[in-house]
Write a structure and sequence with these properties.
287 residues; alpha+beta; BirA Bifunctional Protein, domain 2; Rossmann fold; 2 domains; 6 helices; elongated
């Protein structure tokens, strides 16, 4: 009755490398989310394994990576015949993956051989390749660690059996690096709204514009980054684009003549005006 058990952690890890490579995609210090499952048998493990796959795809969808991230067959190492990686197609990715026309079969280059292709019922000439970055992985550990540790349980009949294990990871730091690489442009970062540290980058221009901007920041500081530096507006605009906050909001004495603010979307560059009251309503609804 104590099984299944699922234990997870977020942990800072380190690579023993002389130098970092691939920019922020592969750093010597990084954050990982690790999850381990302890099941009574293979059947119950397989059910949970699929639930993790589904959950990971939901996560990558929310992070803005869902349209280019695929479950990929990879080496199972000493644990099992195959493991599964989540690979995001990226020009600067360190890995090479192969995929068929509808991308229902995706393989890491390391397992593209005759035996694997026969198992998956695909032909080498049907596959195309591209570079990608690994953002997650999942393994069926079976009894690799539970047997040496004598990790056992009593089943419903009182028979002692060995726990069936699995492990699941998402590279939090790697995911952030992939998002930066995917969404940045020549002006700087472009954070998806779901994970941006703030939703709005507010710039007040002129005496009244600065007062209103400061008041809005005080009422919604969790959503607003206020640029109150004593700099020219042009430099603030450039920094707003560099930092990639989803929306730049300009409140100036000129816009206040019509009781309005100017909102520019970072991703598209499109601007629109709305009244101060309408913007306050946006902040209240957190849309």
């Amino acid at each position: 009755k104590d099984l299944p058990v699922y234990a997870y952690q977020f942990q800072t890890k380190f690579r023993n490398e002389l130098r970092a490579k691939s920019g922020i995609l592969r750093t010597r210090e990084f954050m990982m989310k690790d999850l381990y499952s302890f099941s009574v048998d293979e059947a119950s493990h397989d059910i949970f394994y699929q639930k993790v796959i589904d959950a990971y795809f939901k996560i990558f969808d929310r992070l803005g990576l869902g349209d280019s991230t695929y479950k990929c067959f990879a080496s199972g190492g000493a644990f099992t015949k195959y493991s599964h990686e989540f690979q995001t197609i990226l020009p600067v990715g360190e890995d090479v993956i192969y995929y068929n026309k509808d991308r229902s079969v995706v393989l890491n280059e390391e397992v593209v051989n005759d035996e694997v292709l026969a198992d998956l019922k695909v032909k080498r000439e049907e596959l195309e390749s591209t570079t990608a970055a690994e953002v997650g992985n999942i393994f069926t550990l079976r009894y690799k660690f539970s047997e040496p540790l004598d990790l056992v349980f009593n089943d419903q009949t009182g028979e002692r059996k060995t726990v069936y294990m699995g492990c699941y990871g998402i590279g939090v730091s790697r995911v952030m690096g992939v998002i930066v690489e995917k969404y940045s442009d020549e002006k700087g970062l472009v954070w998806p709204t779901e994970i941006a540290p703030y939703k709005y980058y507010i710039i007040g221009i002129g005496e009244q514009g600065s007062i209103i901007a400061n008041d809005l920041h005080q009422t919604a500081s969790d959503q607003i980054m206020l640029d109150d530096r004593d700099l020219r507006p042009g430099q603030k605009f450039a920094d707003a684009e560099l930092m990639g906050i989803p929306y730049r909001v300009v409140i100036s004495d000129k816009t206040l003549e019509t009781d309005s603010v100017e909102i520019t979307e970072r991703q598209t560059g499109e601007s629109k005006f709305m009244t101060v009251a309408e913007f306050k309503k946006l902040l209240g609804g957190q849309n």
